[in-house]
Amino acid sequence: MAAVTSPEASQQARVYFQTPPGSTEEAETPVRKQGRVTVKYDRKELRKRLNLEEWIIDQLTDLYDCEEEAIPELEIDVDELLDMEDDVDRAARVKELLVDCYKPTEEFVAELLDRIRGMQKLSTPQKK
Length: 128
Hints:
By secondary structure, the protein is mainly α.
Protein backbone atom coordinates (compact mmCIF):
# COMPACT_ATOMS: atom_id res chain seq x y z
CA MET A 1 0.00 0.00 0.00
CA ALA A 2 1.40 3.43 -0.88
CA ALA A 3 0.62 6.62 0.97
CA VAL A 4 1.16 9.97 -0.70
CA THR A 5 1.72 13.07 1.38
CA SER A 6 -0.05 16.23 0.43
CA PRO A 7 1.82 18.63 -1.88
CA GLU A 8 1.29 21.43 0.63
CA ALA A 9 3.45 19.62 3.19
CA SER A 10 6.54 19.72 0.98
CA GLN A 11 7.68 20.87 -2.43
CA GLN A 12 7.83 17.32 -3.78
CA ALA A 13 5.36 14.54 -3.24
CA ARG A 14 6.78 11.61 -1.30
CA VAL A 15 5.62 8.05 -1.56
CA TYR A 16 5.91 5.64 1.36
CA PHE A 17 5.47 1.92 0.89
CA GLN A 18 3.91 -0.06 3.69
CA THR A 19 2.97 -3.70 3.92
CA PRO A 20 -0.75 -4.09 4.53
CA PRO A 21 -1.63 -5.69 7.88
CA GLY A 22 -1.91 -9.47 7.70
CA SER A 23 0.23 -9.69 4.58
CA THR A 24 2.85 -12.45 4.34
CA GLU A 25 4.95 -10.60 1.79
CA GLU A 26 7.94 -10.35 4.14
CA ALA A 27 7.98 -14.10 4.77
CA GLU A 28 7.98 -14.85 1.05
CA THR A 29 11.08 -12.83 0.22
CA PRO A 30 13.86 -13.62 2.71
CA VAL A 31 16.37 -10.84 3.13
CA ARG A 32 19.95 -11.99 3.29
CA LYS A 33 21.89 -10.08 5.89
CA GLN A 34 25.66 -10.06 6.11
CA GLY A 35 26.79 -12.17 9.03
CA ARG A 36 28.08 -10.42 12.10
CA VAL A 37 31.20 -12.57 12.10
CA THR A 38 32.50 -11.01 8.90
CA VAL A 39 31.89 -7.57 10.36
CA LYS A 40 33.95 -8.34 13.47
CA TYR A 41 36.74 -10.26 11.72
CA ASP A 42 38.64 -9.84 8.51
CA ARG A 43 37.10 -12.14 5.88
CA LYS A 44 40.56 -13.06 4.57
CA GLU A 45 41.69 -14.22 8.05
CA LEU A 46 38.54 -16.29 8.43
CA ARG A 47 39.21 -17.96 5.07
CA LYS A 48 42.80 -18.73 6.10
CA ARG A 49 41.60 -20.22 9.38
CA LEU A 50 38.97 -22.34 7.65
CA ASN A 51 41.51 -23.62 5.13
CA LEU A 52 43.92 -24.44 7.96
CA GLU A 53 41.27 -26.32 9.92
CA GLU A 54 40.27 -28.32 6.82
CA TRP A 55 43.94 -29.14 6.22
CA ILE A 56 44.36 -30.26 9.85
CA ILE A 57 41.35 -32.59 9.55
CA ASP A 58 42.73 -34.08 6.32
CA GLN A 59 46.13 -34.62 7.91
CA LEU A 60 44.65 -36.18 11.05
CA THR A 61 42.60 -38.63 8.99
CA ASP A 62 45.84 -39.68 7.28
CA LEU A 63 47.81 -39.87 10.52
CA TYR A 64 45.19 -41.90 12.33
CA ASP A 65 44.32 -43.82 9.15
CA CYS A 66 40.58 -43.40 9.66
CA GLU A 67 37.56 -41.33 8.66
CA GLU A 68 37.00 -37.86 10.13
CA GLU A 69 34.30 -39.16 12.49
CA ALA A 70 36.67 -41.78 13.92
CA ILE A 71 39.53 -39.40 14.77
CA PRO A 72 40.28 -39.61 18.50
CA GLU A 73 38.87 -36.76 20.56
CA LEU A 74 41.57 -34.11 20.34
CA GLU A 75 41.50 -30.40 19.69
CA ILE A 76 44.36 -28.49 18.16
CA ASP A 77 43.60 -24.97 19.31
CA VAL A 78 45.28 -22.60 16.85
CA ASP A 79 44.74 -19.58 19.11
CA GLU A 80 46.43 -21.45 21.97
CA LEU A 81 49.39 -22.20 19.72
CA LEU A 82 49.60 -18.57 18.60
CA ASP A 83 49.69 -17.47 22.25
CA MET A 84 52.80 -19.55 22.92
CA GLU A 85 56.22 -17.93 22.95
CA ASP A 86 58.03 -19.94 20.28
CA ASP A 87 57.86 -22.87 17.87
CA VAL A 88 59.54 -25.22 20.36
CA ASP A 89 56.63 -24.80 22.80
CA ARG A 90 54.10 -25.06 19.97
CA ALA A 91 55.68 -28.25 18.64
CA ALA A 92 55.76 -29.77 22.11
CA ARG A 93 52.06 -28.99 22.62
CA VAL A 94 51.01 -30.52 19.28
CA LYS A 95 53.14 -33.64 19.91
CA GLU A 96 51.53 -33.93 23.34
CA LEU A 97 48.10 -33.92 21.69
CA LEU A 98 49.18 -36.55 19.16
CA VAL A 99 50.69 -38.93 21.73
CA ASP A 100 48.29 -41.74 20.73
CA CYS A 101 49.21 -41.55 17.04
CA TYR A 102 51.26 -44.53 15.88
CA LYS A 103 52.49 -42.85 12.68
CA PRO A 104 55.37 -40.32 12.62
CA THR A 105 54.06 -36.80 13.34
CA GLU A 106 57.19 -34.68 12.80
CA GLU A 107 56.29 -33.72 9.24
CA PHE A 108 52.73 -32.78 10.26
CA VAL A 109 53.96 -30.67 13.19
CA ALA A 110 56.54 -28.84 11.04
CA GLU A 111 53.97 -28.11 8.33
CA LEU A 112 51.39 -26.95 10.89
CA LEU A 113 53.85 -24.55 12.49
CA ASP A 114 54.79 -23.23 9.07
CA ARG A 115 51.12 -22.67 8.18
CA ILE A 116 50.23 -20.82 11.39
CA ARG A 117 53.25 -18.54 11.15
CA GLY A 118 51.96 -15.04 10.45
CA MET A 119 48.34 -15.84 11.28
CA GLN A 120 46.37 -13.61 13.60
CA LYS A 121 44.67 -14.81 16.73
CA LEU A 122 40.88 -14.73 16.41
CA SER A 123 39.85 -13.40 19.78
CA THR A 124 36.22 -13.37 20.83
CA PRO A 125 34.64 -10.11 19.67
CA GLN A 126 33.50 -7.69 22.33
CA LYS A 127 29.77 -6.92 22.43
CA LYS A 128 28.96 -3.26 21.94
